[in-house]
Amino acid sequence: MTSIKSYYNLAKEKYREIGINTDEALDKLEEIEISLKCCDIVDIESRNDTSDYKSEKENSPKLRNSLEKAFNLIPGKHRISLNAIHMDADEFVELDEIEACHYDKWISWAKEHTKGMDFYTSMVRHEKSDKGFALSDRNKDIRYFWVEHCQRCRIVGQYIGSKTNTPCTTTININDFFESSPVDFLSTQEILVDSLNKIYSEHINKNYNLDSIFTGLGEIKGDYLPLADETFCQNYAIDNKLITNINTNSITSEKQIYQSINAIVPFTEKTIINIRPEENSDNLILLTDKIINLARYIVNNNLLDKVIICLDFKTEVYDLARVKKWVIGTRAVQKAFLHALLEPSEYLKRCDEAGDYNSKAALMEEFKSYPYGVVWDYFCYAMNVPVGLEWLDSGNHISD
User: Fold this and answer.
1) What is the mean pLDDT of residues 45-52?
2) Which of 85, 93, 330, 337 could bridge to 295 as Cys pair (CB 3.0-4.6 Å)?
């Protein structure tokens, strides 16, 4: 590994020529926490398959095992976003009866292997949401079942935060939808808002729990109509001082990165950036121009303390490739942030201020050939994880 250090020292001198301290960049990169989401993007056509829900007690140890394998291949220490369905209780517990103690095994594990845990409600794959409605169901008993579930999730989140000594972000994942355009949409949406108001009327200690709402629905085909889309969730969050969410699938251009984030960052304490796979990516999060530009925007606008980076893609418990998906996605996002941290942003800003766009373009072109990959290899080496393709040869990590 002597060559890695030697190459890094050469790269370090090269970056110093444009005013970049690579050691400082790597220190900042180490502090960036990425949350691996353990729950699915909802597929409406299969959202009410209850078989997985009934067997989560057996699946939780497998999930922890897979996460350990992934974390051993990812530089730095990160977080997980756990779904309420992944409780590890001694016996079956209904979702409106969950208690903090049902997640003690997860918390003990997280204290050893992660920087913290975040928490999501679980209102799919259940007989009480099989008609497409949960918090907006016109049946009061069903609706109150889910209100109770969400209230208990916030209490669990507060407990997680108190035990891990880092705030837990608890997200209400709203998946209610119409199967076709309704005659009266607003009255059902009013029921949803009333349910949310009831949930958030309960006081929770913000030192341990941060509240967020999100739509878990993936790309919707046909005539399905979500009751709460991304804009609804953002508006409700801002109005009620909750954490907002942005789904990267709703961003299609560099310009939209600016527009999407600028529209909400000034009005909220923090924003969760849910990074999802691009279409035709085999459900993989890859190092695309979009991810690089997103990281550049966050770094150049000093937003690292205001965003929570979450990898949000479908990884079933029985998915033998899920460890690879987590590793590929997390390392790709880390590379994007390293790319941003190694840019001579102060010089580029001065070019913008002076209107000297030709100098800016020239520097950006030169920057493309700088030894960014060498710095990344050194970061992996320093973090004691496999360098380059070595992680593919580090064991039979794709199976449980």
Assistant:
1) 46
2) 337
User: Exposed/middle/buried for 365, CB within 10 Å: 0-12, 13-18, 19+?
Assistant: exposed
The answer on 169 and 75 residing in a single domain is yes
Task: Enumerate residues 6+ apart whose C-beta is below 8 A from 248.
Answer: 273, 274, 275, 276, 290, 291, 294
pLDDT tens string 163-191: 999 999 999 999 999 988 888 999 999 99
For residue 225, the tally of other CB atoms under 10 A from its CB is 16
- Answering whether pTM is above 0.85, one says yes
Structural domain range at position 135: 34-322
Q: Which residue has the tokens 């220490």?
A: 77
Sign for the pseudo-dihedral over CA of 161, 164, 165, 169: negative
Q: How many folded domains does the chain comprise?
A: 2
**Structure token pair of residue 286:** 């890859």
Q: Which of 274, 292, 322 is the last residue of a domain?
A: 322
129 and 252 part of one domain:
yes
Strands (E), 18-63: 34-37
Q: Answer yes or no: is 327 within a domain.
A: no
Residues 6+ apart with CB under 8 A from 372: 338, 339, 342
Same domain as 378, residue 296: no
- In the chain, the amino acid numbered 222 is G
Residues 15 and 127 in one domain: no
